[in-house]
Amino acid sequence: MKKRNRINLLAVITSLCLFGRIPAVSAVTVPAIIPEPQKMELHDGCFKLQPGRSLLGFFTHGGTKIIVDASAQTSAAFLAKQLDQSTGYKIQISGPEINIAKGNILITSQAADPSLGAEGYELSVTPDSVVIRAPGQAGLFYGVQTLLQLFPPEIFSTNIVRHVDWQIPCMEIKDWPQFKWRGFMLDVSRHFFNKSEVEKVLDLMALHKMNMFHWHLTDDQGWRIQIKKYPRLTDVGAWRAGVGFNFPSNSTTAYGADGRYGGFYTQDDIREVVKYAAALHISIVPEIEMPGHSTAALTAYPQYSCTGGPFAPQLTAGIFDGIYDPAKEETFQFLEGVLAEVIPLFPYKYIHIGGDEVPKETWKNNPDCQALMKREGLKNEEELQSWFIRRIEKIVNAHGRSIIGWSEILQGGLPRNAAVMDWIGGAKEAAGAGHEVVMTPTAYCYFDFYQSTNRIVEPKAATWGGPLTLAKMYSFDPMPTNLPSQLEPYILGTQGNLWAEWVPSLSHAEYMMFPRACALSEVCWSAKSTRNWDDFMRRLQVQARRFDLMGVNYRHNFVESSESN
Questions:
Q1: Distances (CA, A) of 46 to 125, 151, 298, 353, 539
Q2: Which of 36, 175, 219, 381 is catalytic?
Q3: 381 an active-site residue?
Q4: Which one of the listed residues 293, 352, 435, 508 is annotated catalytic?
């Protein structure tokens, strides 16, 4: 029997099992891994996790151990913590001198296949042992994530679960990602998610082998990052009167002691989140919006605007007149001061500078801006925006980083080292000019859209686009149509975006993320040629059980999701 046919047959068995038509013991024979591995072959038999021998209620010698070399310590600790949390077995971590056989788990980079790349891994399960082998630490970590998904869903419980047969099927997996950039953007400007809530989002990203967190820290509605040189950015710009959109005040916890809505992260908070993400092999790209979407900043410092204010943080979505004045040299001194504090907090190469939806009428009606355009030989306001972005790029480059911005930074000419986040077009143009591109088109990547056409049964969501159903998300191909093959390496990957105008809590955010982020993870990681909707839905039933045990508020009626509901 061919490998693929065998897996499909087992999928049918598991599907019957999940709906109660055959004994549940059969379910352990069929993996339910999301995202689906590139290559997987099942074998007879299973590996069983064993507790140590107990004496007076304490685990002692014996039982399953995790055997590691120096490169695998972090991944081993992650695995042991999760196993201990749900099984109570107190799995020990030992050095490579211990025999890997006889019920142990080996995590190592020794003798790994270099062709797997930094994020690829191999996973071998036999009745005697489990071996995870990868060239890089990220690959070892992703191998651990896959291993956890081979166990019964109860492995993800936050409490010890008794009377579970902790066994997994024997198999060989060889796996690597399709795209380098597998991301998710969380807008914390319109709704402030606190540090622990952000870390929970990172945990869920890691479960799905997603590696880029785009942290949308500033916008018209709120400034969320402490800048010591400019304290009013958070003293004033981080707060507004209420949550807006007719949400009741008890729909969110993001209120200060004085009743104002909002909040911000200290620089120590940022460092802690960056460190937390790094342990999950997630890089963070901060977004500091400019030249538009800057009402919150200009509420605090109106002298850097074209009009001088007054400004007030807005309660609703839209385009505002909060735009920096490029004709004032003080504007760039201000932004350089901001970036000088932001950039050292984030080690990844890209700093996101926004660049979208700039209300250029403000510049058109400003004499100083028009004089600047004439002096610099700029034909229109699009070229003025490009001139602004190029100045910012020089500041960012001076700190050893590069800029990335939304599609609009193409207008008037793209800076030399910039990358593009394509939400409304321009990917082919940017790739053709040698710029890296992240695909995030609204039709497939905007998680603030409704998940079906039946809005009555859904919580409030954005109405200007969508719906983005689960099936549509799963059908997405990040590679632009008819892109010449020589340009494909410039397409880094894709990400989902959750704008938070309509999302006043983490619970609501989880509902908007899942299960659509499960589909997105497979689009990012797995080969398009092996994507199978029916099998994905089969695996998603198991993922939903994991979510239940983890306390994740996913959209429960995803089984009925389709392009028409």
A1: 8, 11, 62, 51, 20
A2: 219
A3: no
A4: 293
> Does residue 393 have an active-site annotation?
no
Annotation marks residue 408 as catalytic:
no
Quote the pLDDT of residue 28.
47
Task: Read off the pLDDT of residues 265-315 as tens digits, 9 standing for 90 and up.
Answer: 999 999 999 999 999 999 999 999 999 999 999 999 999 999 887 765 554
Q: Which long-range contacts (CB under 8 A, 24 or more apart) does 476-483 make?
A: 476/444, 476/445, 476/520, 476/523, 477/523, 477/528, 478/179, 478/439, 478/523, 478/524, 479/439, 480/427, 480/428, 480/431, 480/439, 483/427, 483/428, 483/431
At 63, the pLDDT band (50, 70, 90 cuts) reads confident
Q: Which of 172, 356, 357, 382 is catalytic?
A: 357
- Contact (Cβ atoms closer than 8 angstroms) between residue 437 and residue 490: yes
Q: CA angle at residue 156 from 152 to 159, to 5 degrees? A: 110
Residues in the chain: 565
419-445 pLDDT, tens digit each: 999 999 999 999 999 999 999 999 999
**Gap between the Cα atoms of 284 and 348, Å rounded:** 7
d(C-alpha 473, C-alpha 521), whole Å: 10
Backbone angles phi, psi at 288, to 5 degrees: -115, 105
The model's pTM is: 0.93
How do 437-439 and 491-498 pair as beta strands? parallel
